[in-house]
Amino acid sequence: MKIILTHEVSGLGTAGDVVEVKDGYARNYLLPRGVAIRWTKGGQKDVEQIRRGRKIREIASIEQANDVKSQLEGLTVRLKVRAGTGGRLFGSVTPADIATAVKTAGGPDVDKRRIELTTPIKSLGTHRISVRLHPEVAANVGVQVDAAK
């Protein structure tokens, strides 16, 4: 099935790319999550609009990405969350929570879709997360999750 990506998908492409994927992957994963739309001749016009929007938000060069990476890796990001006994959280820490915590810690604006959590954060302590800044640059950030009093 031919689709147009509306968001960046790891291993597949960036927003505005037209890609061919298996029908089940598109129908069951990409389309319901809103990261892609079906390709049509009329939809091809949307590709240019998506690409223009991406250029505005995107980190343009590797040098700029490395600058943001050094800012992020120098930060101490702390989150206060509700936790039960034994250090288990009520729920989990989301990428949106981390993006907000980075901003309040004095860091740069980070799009929540660029934050990659390999496993959900469901316990107190220090966790390492990855932030994809550029296709070739990723920052590793330490997030300290503390219990809210």
From TrEMBL:
Pfam families: Ribosomal_L9_C, Ribosomal_L9_N. InterPro entries: Ribosomal_bL9, Ribosomal_bL9/RNase_H1_N, Ribosomal_bL9_bac/chp, Ribosomal_bL9_C, Ribosomal_bL9_C_sf, Ribosomal_bL9_N, Ribosomal_bL9_N_sf. The keyword rRNA-binding applies. Keywords: Ribonucleoprotein, Ribosomal protein, RNA-binding, rRNA-binding. One of its GO terms (cellular component) is ribosome. Residues 13-40 form the Ribosomal protein L9 domain. Binds to the 23S rRNA. Belongs to the bacterial ribosomal protein bL9 family. NCBIfam families: L9. PANTHER family: 50S RIBOSOMAL PROTEIN L9. This is Large ribosomal subunit protein bL9.
